[in-house]
Design brief:
Mean pLDDT is about 85; it is low at about 85-90. About 15% of the residues are buried. The protein has helices at about 5-20, 30-35, 40-50, 55-65, 70. The protein is globular and about 30 Å long. It is an all-alpha fold and about 90 residues long. It has one domain (about 5-70).
Length: about 90
């Protein structure tokens, strides 16, 4: 895999893994199939320094309800891994 990926491309590939782990798809390929991104394009992003187009990123974000701020690296906390906030219960 290309170690010089842009954050956008890293996050899109990470999103495919997250959706697979959550059971949305059996394989990461499923996410890309659903939005019309070819296996060749994914391979080129992973191995040859290509990037996903803005239109592809926009389509993925809309389709899977993902915040573009996370995809573009403006929000560092992964929204899929947010910890549930514990509420303190007052004891009377």
């Amino acid at each position: 895999m290309n170690n010089n990926l842009y954050i956008v491309d890293e996050r899109i590939l990470e999103l495919a893994e997250i959706l697979k782990e959550k059971g949305k798809f059996s394989f990461t390929k499923g996410m890309f199939d659903e939005v019309g991104i070819s296996k060749q394009k994914v391979n080129n992003v992973k191995n040859y320094g290509e990037s996903f187009t803005f239109k592809q990123v926009e389509t993925i974000c809309k389709k899977f309800n993902v915040d573009m701020n996370w995809i573009f690296g403006f929000q560092h906390e992964n929204p899929f891994l947010k910890k549930k906030k514990l509420q303190l219960i007052k004891q009377e």
